Amino acid sequence: MITEELFRSDSYLQECEATVTGINEKGGILLDRSVFYPTGGGQPGDVGVLVGADGTEITVLTTVKGDGNENVVHVPAEGSALPAPGDTVTARVDWNRRYKHMRMHTCLHLLCAVVPHGVTGGKIGAEKSSLDFDIGDGSLDKEAITESINKLIKQDHQVGARWITDEELDTNPDLVRTMSVSPPRGAGKVRLLDIPEVDLQPCGGTHLAQTGEVGRIRVSKIENKGKRNRRVNIVFDE
After folding, report:
1. Pick the CATH number of 98-236 from 3.30.980.10, 3.10.580.10, 2.40.50.100, 3.40.50.150
2. Which helix (H) or strand (E) holds 114?
């Protein structure tokens, strides 16, 4: 059964009531709806707890995508007493960690807007994140990138999402900045992250409502990852 992904429409939801629909063969817990984001697009899966009707808490160590219709699988701590199908639980994310991921993920879109090169990889963390760029014969300036990103943050641009069809994406291939990973297809539509006049590209992650929420950042290091590739690392500068 497909889980209703509440985080797609509202990244700020911290918990929800849900019904257990099953336990998969690996012991993962499946729900009819969830606020937990599953690992994907360089963003780690959410952690948190599932609270039963009797107050019993099951620690969720991570959230992943399963096989077939298992789009959101909550991975419990080893030895947890698993709920039964039909049980009602409260799914509650570790909000502090999730919000840092939202700030970082939104900031990576600003980094992508500032560095006009193809993206060959990326990683999101609660304290440090990075994007890899194919810069060719170009060069990158750490201080200049830091200044440009912080300017976009301070301008407090609105951040939103909209959907286009697979066919619309096919006619607008420049929307895809990632060279190593293609946007998921097959559902007939693709979700775009939209920061008007700043960045527009396919992305299924969780993001802020305004760039101002990111807070001040700095480029901590630019690493050489090959003849053409450079890794730009960002951290919060608070």
Report:
1. 3.30.980.10
2. helix 95-114
